[in-house]
Amino acid sequence: MLDVGDDAPDVTAPMATPEAAATTDRGSYTSDDVAEFSLATALADGPVVLAFYPGVFSRTCTKELCQLRDWKADLSALDAPVYGVSADTPWSLLAFVDEYDIAYPLVSGFNNSVIADFGVRRESGLMAGIADRAVFVVAPDGTVTYTWRATEPLTFPDTDEVEGAVAAAAE
């Protein structure tokens, strides 16, 4: 797993956006509904929060992503985009965004290295290939300024710590 002070990898991956989920009927998604996420492009506007999670529509991840949805609404004055990242396909991410009214983009680690590049890919066991639950704050210069990784199920990052890390990264 990347540590504070490490350079974040310059990753690109498919992304499901709330706008695309709102304009296309669920079950009718095509590649035209999938955007491209580029960390370098996202960082051009300031710090970025990347929230890695195992998969959409699971009990724990649904709770986490909805908690992040509600937390992000509280941070409307703080200019820091939040991106969820999982191994799910972009089409299942679009369905999840639609179902739970997620107001931030979800990045697909399906068939690319974004999860491994951040060092949070499970390498063995029945669930090999999915992401561990982790959060990174990346400063505009690409430096990781905050990391958190779950050690138990149903644990979530302290959002006040994430907020503080974003504020510090923006300075």
TrEMBL record:
Pfam families: AhpC-TSA (PF00578). Keywords: Redox-active center. SUPFAM superfamilies: Thioredoxin-like (SSF52833). It comes from Halobaculum gomorrense. It comes from the Archaea. Residues 2-171 form the Thioredoxin domain. GO terms for molecular function: antioxidant activity; oxidoreductase activity. Residues 1-27 are annotated as: Disordered. InterPro entries: AhpC/TSA, Thioredoxin-like_sf, Thioredoxin_domain, Tpx_Peroxidase_subfamily. Residues 12-24 have a biased composition (Low complexity). This is Peroxiredoxin.
